[in-house]
């Protein structure tokens, strides 16, 4: 099933251009398209680089040393995080990320989102920021933080599904 979803994602993404992706990301991140495009241009990240991160996450790879493709994606994420104030240097600003999440939930009129779920999400953010605190490479910090959050959320989802 995971492989099928990855194949579909690959086909969809391959049909999209960097400009399409930049537009979608700008909307999702409440940034201008120009800001997102600047990060694409600055890091020379490709769609394949971004898909590599998805593959690492889907395959639950415990990669310690990332290849150039994954690190380019990490630099792209770092650029976006810096523009949103979610990172300063090699430090993740977890309080800023939590504030962004609260704002999004409020705007989307989702205050009924289970408080327990939000608490678990915030716990994941805290856990992952502690895991990347000692890393000094900004690109590696953003990549490992995103992968950590993805992995931890998967564990929570599995746990919730097992409880049902």
TrEMBL record:
Residues 1-17 form the signal peptide. InterPro entries: PBP/GOBP, PBP_GOBP_sf. This is Pheromone binding protein 4. Transmembrane segments: none annotated. GO terms for molecular function: odorant binding. Coiled coil: none annotated. The keyword Ribosomal protein does not apply. CDD domains: PBP_GOBP. Keywords: Signal.
């Amino acid at each position: 099933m995971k492989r099928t979803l990855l194949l579909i994602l690959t086909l969809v993404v391959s049909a999209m251009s960097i400009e399409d992706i930049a537009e979608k990301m700008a909307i999702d991140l409440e940034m201008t398209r120009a800001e997102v495009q600047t990060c694409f241009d600055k890091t020379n990240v490709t769609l394949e680089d971004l898909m590599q991160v998805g593959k690492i996450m889907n395959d639950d790879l415990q990669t310690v040393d990332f290849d150039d493709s994954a690190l380019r994606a990490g630099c792209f994420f770092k650029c976006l995080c810096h523009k949103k104030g979610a990172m300063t240097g090699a430090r993740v600003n977890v309080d800023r990320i939590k504030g962004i999440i609260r704002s999004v939930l409020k705007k989307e009129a989702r205050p009924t989102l289970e408080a327990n779920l939000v608490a678990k999400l915030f716990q994941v953010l805290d856990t992952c920021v502690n895991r990347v605190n000692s890393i000094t490479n900004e690109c590696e910090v953003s990549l490992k933080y995103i992968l950590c959050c993805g992995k931890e959320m998967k564990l929570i989802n599995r746990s919730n599904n097992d409880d049902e």
